[in-house]
Amino acid sequence: MSFDGYKDKIEEGDTVILYLTITQVYCIKAEPKTLNKKGNLIENVFQTPYGALKCAELIGKYYGSKISLSKGWGYVLQPTPELWTITLPHRTQIIYTPDMSMIILQLELCPGSIVVESGTGSGSLSHGLIRAIKPHGHLYTFDFHKTRAETAQEEFKDHGLANYVTVTHRDVCENGFGDDLDNKANAVFLDLPHPWLAIPHSLKSLKQTGGRLCSFSPCIEQVQKSCLMLLKLGFQEIQTMEVLQTQYAVQQRSLPVVNLDFLKSEKDGTETEKKDREMIKTITAIPPPTQPGHTGYLTFATLPPIWARNLQISLNQDDINDAD
Amino acid sequence: MEDTESETTINVGDFLVVQRQGYTKLHKLRKHGNMVLGSFTVEMDNIVGERYSDTFQMKNMPGSKRFYILEKVDEVNSAAGCVSIEKSGADNRHIPNNADSQGLTKEDIDKLKGEELSSNNIVEQLINNSKTFNMKTEYSQEKYIKKKEKKYFEYIQIRKPSIRLLSQMFYRQDPTKTLGIRTDDLSQILSYANIHSEGNHLLYDSGTSGLMTAAITNAVGPRTTGSLIHMHPGNECQKNGFVAMQFPQEQADRCINVNLYSVLRCFYQNKGDYSGKSETVSESDANVDADNGEPSAKRTKVEGGASQKKQWQLDNERACKLLEGKVDSLVVVSKEHPVSIVKELMQFLRGGRGFVVFNSLKEPLQDLYVYLKGRVDIVSIRLSSNFMRAYQVLPDRTHPEVNMNAGVTF
């Protein structure tokens, strides 16, 4: 219940982010008991590299406070979509923060927007979308994998977000988003193997006054097919991009200075033997030796309002003809 | 969020984004106002009462050479579809590289423009008078047409401003306008600072043309509980982007613009003033809340009005009151060296909340990193930069856009 709104203290049932080091961040549940693999109720203990943590002890602690472990310490933080993204249990490939941020800004979301998402996947993006549109917006999310849809539903409920989201198990490429959503959505997000099949359905769901669409695809062939479909249906401002982030390691380095001046004069015995070698300290930021070079292509497009749609379709037709 | 008629209709006083092919421009619509668009001066009267996303054609005004009027169109004739190409060359081996391949002079072209602005017409004339056009390959012929069409394109579209359009426009016009914040930077600042409809957000901004305030206010949204304290170093803050978004009054009121120095002076030296005030307000809060649910921020203003204080003093007091209760996020976007600013503003941040510092240079942020690392109470510090690449997607001709943005910001 710890995703909806700022909180000061940890309550029972909260999902809590345990921060140990920059690469060791975990999410745990503040519950005294948990089910083990056999389905028996046991004490909820989280094993960290710095010692075991009894989760029941977290209840009542302040978010942001330091907790001691037997061989070190850690901090407990309230989850944000960003922290959740790096700690969540992966059920599928997930969308990371740089892409997620871009999607939210490019879809022009603000509190009150209605968004359609497919597929739900591990729900990484869903958390970001919900944050952007609450309290009076709504997210309709679809997945063709039954268990995934159910797990996601459970998770939203557990995180206290159930009021902002509707999870549906459906293959949207075949069956669309449903008549209930006709002309309702401000924006549609597609992360599907065949996004071009869902684009006509998206058109139906978007508002008469127009809206934005985003399709996330790892392969360029998917992008090409989607773009053609978007052109055909009269979308404008079709734009494909990639967003990559580099994280630097800030380090202080000491470099020895080679002094060659003494070579110019003869030895006269006054030099002190074995001077401390002079060092210059410098602060530098080092990019990582390897980093992800590709996540997926983001294709964005605008659906013009109904009164400007025919014009756009005829314009796009010219572009398609040119290309042939 | 019902889209009412008034939201989609273009009215006098509205801010518009005028788009002519890839070019966009922000324009405030006035009664009988003109707009300068490149080499064209356009009278804007005809678009009043029309709807957003409509397309208009620039037509010559009778009797005046340089003025154009706008006419709504339902169909656009693009040059590429109209100009007939007789033959094409196989490659560019016979094309001489000199300036006299075009037979028309500048005067001729200006005359054509003066008679009737029609890109199709002009492009056709240009092609007919080009000595090398028929030698070009099919691809480069098409490229030539597109390039020329762009120059004489007579259609413009009127768009409603959004954060996306503004951010792209500012960055294209001049990246220094937003201190180098690109669309991807902006989006990540908002994410990492956890800006959303709830909580009090604190922003220090030394000049992003109002883009940061607009983006945060947009994310805070209409009819929500969140608010933003915007600290700026000058007498007046930059507001371009903010006013362009035309937020409803209630939403715009929750962005409090204060001067960095005067608000902190108020915070340290006049503590009695606003704390006393906050007490009385909370008292009256309790009374009034029972009657109606009017937001308390508004009431502070009403009350202050009675005591004849200047607007900026009231804003300062409002801001201090919020600061006393601490804020939930901090964003620092500065021209100045960030360490001292962050050091000062950090005290207002509630424990366990995130903050983001943006600078177009890496070195000041390295200093900041070392400072933050030195304080033991801050964790999860990251220094990162972004790389964004746009793609041209066409059948058989997909490649990264030729113009890539190599700028790196942190």
TrEMBL record, chain A:
Binding residues for S-adenosyl-L-methionine: 122-125, 143, 171, 191
Localization terms from the record: Nucleus
UniProt keyword annotations, A-Z: Methyltransferase, Nucleus, S-adenosyl-L-methionine, Transferase, tRNA processing
Domain of life: Eukaryota
Catalytic activity: adenosine(58) in tRNA + S-adenosyl-L-methionine = N(1)-methyladenosine(58) in tRNA + S-adenosyl-L-homocysteine + H(+); an adenosine in mRNA + S-adenosyl-L-methionine = an N(1)-methyladenosine in mRNA + S-adenosyl-L-homocysteine + H(+)
Biological process annotations from GO: tRNA methylation
Gene Ontology molecular function terms on file: tRNA (adenine(58)-N1)-methyltransferase activity
EC numbers: 2.1.1.220
GO annotation, cellular component aspect: nucleus; tRNA (m1A) methyltransferase complex
Similarity-based family: Belongs to the class I-like SAM-binding methyltransferase superfamily. TRM61 family.
Function: Catalytic subunit of tRNA (adenine-N(1)-)-methyltransferase, which catalyzes the formation of N(1)-methyladenine at position 58 (m1A58) in initiator methionyl-tRNA.
Protein name from the UniProt record: tRNA (adenine(58)-N(1))-methyltransferase catalytic subunit TRMT61A
UniProtKB/TrEMBL annotation, chain B:
Biological process according to GO: tRNA methylation
PANTHER family given in the database record: TRANSLATION INITIATION FACTOR EIF3-RELATED, TRNA (ADENINE(58)-N(1))-METHYLTRANSFERASE NON-CATALYTIC SUBUNIT TRM6
Family that this chain belongs to: Belongs to the TRM6/GCD10 family.
Keywords carried by this UniProt record: Nucleus, tRNA processing
Organism: Aromia moschata
Top-level taxon: Eukaryota
Coiled-coil parts of chain: none
Main location: nucleus
Protein name: tRNA (adenine(58)-N(1))-methyltransferase non-catalytic subunit TRM6
InterPro entries: TRM6 (IPR017423)
One CC-aspect GO term: nucleus
Pfam family, one: Gcd10p
Cell location: Nucleus
Stretches for region Disordered: 278-308
